[in-house]
């Protein structure tokens, strides 16, 4: 069952479990510091390979060796990789999400925060559905990259997607406004709500590719763009620099 926490409930876990058990009556509401409220359709989190955007499909094709699916959610990426005969572990901080992964037949799961893992050696770290979000802020990005690097094998890779959200700040006259309380325009604060329960506010980071590349290189990685998507999103590959 999803972990009960009156202070910060397991929103995703509760919603995923409801959908899996046929109790889907509403979607997750996303409350943003940047835009109007939006929704995450729960059925989409259970999508198969054919329903995934090209960026996710390409990342799954490039995933190799011992794979860690970071923020696995309902496990759709892990499930596909497992069916391809690949060695994949689904990781999520949500107890409900991990329970759903297990119910769907994913053999290797870990309920944990990736930034608290130690002594692991993965050939591929998979960070999809705006994977840079877990870096939280631009200032925290070097620490996040350092931790991810510590989990990689010698020739390991990080496959991560993100979006350049500069377009969201564009005015009708072509100028751009900026939130001066933020260090970087891709820093957003969210809350999520499901069935009258609301999470605590949390930081989320959207990184444009050039900023990700600069931060990666400062942290000892080489960073290449693999693919651009149709809506300002992209897939990048990071490997430890020689």
Automatic annotation (TrEMBL):
<dbReference type="GO" id="GO:0008757">
    <property type="term" value="F:S-adenosylmethionine-dependent methyltransferase activity"/>
</dbReference>
<keyword id="KW-0489">Methyltransferase</keyword>
<dbReference type="Pfam" id="PF08241">
    <property type="entry name" value="Methyltransf_11"/>
</dbReference>
<dbReference type="InterPro" id="IPR013216">
    <property type="entry name" value="Methyltransf_11"/>
</dbReference>
<keyword id="KW-0808">Transferase</keyword>
<protein>
    <submittedName>
        <fullName>SAM-dependent methyltransferase</fullName>
    </submittedName>
</protein>
<dbReference type="GO" id="GO:0032259">
    <property type="term" value="P:methylation"/>
</dbReference>
<dbReference type="InterPro" id="IPR029063">
    <property type="entry name" value="SAM-dependent_MTases_sf"/>
</dbReference>
<feature type="domain" description="Methyltransferase type 11">
    <location>
        <begin position="68"/>
        <end position="159"/>
    </location>
</feature>
């Amino acid at each position: 069952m999803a972990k009960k926490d009156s202070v910060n409930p397991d929103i995703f876990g509760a919603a995923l479990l409801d959908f899996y058990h046929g109790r889907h009556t509403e979607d997750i509401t996303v409350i943003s510091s940047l835009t109007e409220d939006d929704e995450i359709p729960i059925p989409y989190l259970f999508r198969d390979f054919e329903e995934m955007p090209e960026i996710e499909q390409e990342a799954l094709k490039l995933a190799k060796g011992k794979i860690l699916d970071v923020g696995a959610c309902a496990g759709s990426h892990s499930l596909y990789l497992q069916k391809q005969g690949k060695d994949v572990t689904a990781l999520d901080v949500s107890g409900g999400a991990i329970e759903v992964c297990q119910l769907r037949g994913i053999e290797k799961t870990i309920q944990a925060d990736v930034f608290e893992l130690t002594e692991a050696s993965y050939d591929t770290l998979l960070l999809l559905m705006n994977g840079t979000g877990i870096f939280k802020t631009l200032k925290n990005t070097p620490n996040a990259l350092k931790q991810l690097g510590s989990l990689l094998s010698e020739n390991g890779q990080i496959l991560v997607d993100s979006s350049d959200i500069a377009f969201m700040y564009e005015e009708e006259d072509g100028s751009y406004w900026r939130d001066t309380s933020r260090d970087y325009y891709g820093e957003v604060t969210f809350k999520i709500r499901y069935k009258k329960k609301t999470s605590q506010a949390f930081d989320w980071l959207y990184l444009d590719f050039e900023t990700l590349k600069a931060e990666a290189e400062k942290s000892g990685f080489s960073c290449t763009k693999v693919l651009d998507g149709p809506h300002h999103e992209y897939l990048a590959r990071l490997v430890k620099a020689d």
